[in-house]
Design goal:
Blueprint: E1 7-11, H1 16-27, E2 31-36, H2 39-47, E3 57-60, H3 66-80, E4 85-88, H4 103-131, E5 134-139, H5 153-173, E6 178-185, H6 192-206, H7 217-228, E7 239-242
Helix pairs in contact: 1-7, 3-4, 4-5
């Protein structure tokens, strides 16, 4: 098992891509703090016994609030004693044309999709610095590399910001043995965001994907496992595109 005895935190871990990452981490031997504030998803995951083994557990927290993040991280440290892996996966995807967008809509998306990554990385990074080791994995999107779809300027901005933030963290924390990398998925089936986009422009999207299909959550989870494991020990500041060839760099 590639993550045996590793302790991980996954935000947005009760549903979608986050849930798949949690399942993959548990399967690979990690204990996982599954952080979410969506009560419906948490209840569903609990009924389906998502934390199947080890010391995995749920933590209810709004990661767009820095004070809640601080409390959450302290709670996780009390339970797991250390944090080897942080996956920032919390995110929202809401439609609003730029000219009609309110300040509140802009702020909400940036706080959940970008500010939370800073809050969690800052809080967890402090512990990782003391350990002199750690892996931070941030979930961006193809929307952070290419023009976002109509009505999602706030979303595209947040995802582009994640890429820049990841590279800055990699440079700043690298001397302390901490790696920071980014995953940029394309449209992903089985997620609220992916389903919404598929319904809106899915057929047109696939015309530009050489592999001819949408991503599935397991595709993203496999990449997260690799970046969390010792197999990627010399990789930091990287943005791994999982777009079926739609975006190449």
């Amino acid at each position: 098992m590639r993550l045996k005895d590793k302790q991980a935190v996954v935000t947005g871990g009760a549903g979608g891509i986050g849930r798949s990452i949690v399942s993959g981490f548990i399967r690979e031997g990690a204990s996982v703090a599954i952080v979410d504030n969506n009560k419906v998803l948490i209840e569903k995951a609990e009924k389906e016994k998502l934390p199947r083994q080890g010391r995995s557990f749920f933590v209810s927290a709004d990661v767009s609030d820095s004070l809640e993040v601080t409390k959450m991280v302290k709670q996780v440290i009390r339970r797991l004693n250390k944090i080897d892996i942080l996956v920032n996966c919390a995110g929202i995807y809401e439609y609003s044309p730029m000219l009609d967008m309110s300040d509140e809509e802009w702020d909400k998306t940036l706080r959940v999709n970008l500010y939370s990554y800073f809050y969690c990385s800052r809080a967890v990074g402090a512990y990782m610095k003391e350990q002199k080791t750690g892996s931070i994995i941030n979930l961006s999107s193809i929307a952070g590399m290419k023009a976002a779809s109509m009505g999602h300027s706030h979303y595209g901005t947040s995802k582009a910001g994640i890429i820049g933030f990841t590279r800055a963290v990699a440079a700043e924390l690298g001397p302390f043995g901490i790696r920071a990398n980014c995953i940029c998925p394309g449209l992903t089936e089985g997620t609220p965001m992916g389903s919404s986009a598929q319904n809106a422009f899915g057929e047109e999207y696939l015309k530009h994907v050489p592999l001819g299909r949408f991503a599935i959550p397991q595709d993203i989870a496999s990449a997260a496992i690799y970046l969390a494991s010792e197999e990627s020990n010399y990789i930091t500041g990287a943005c791994l595109n999982i777009t079926g060839g739609m975006h190449m760099d």
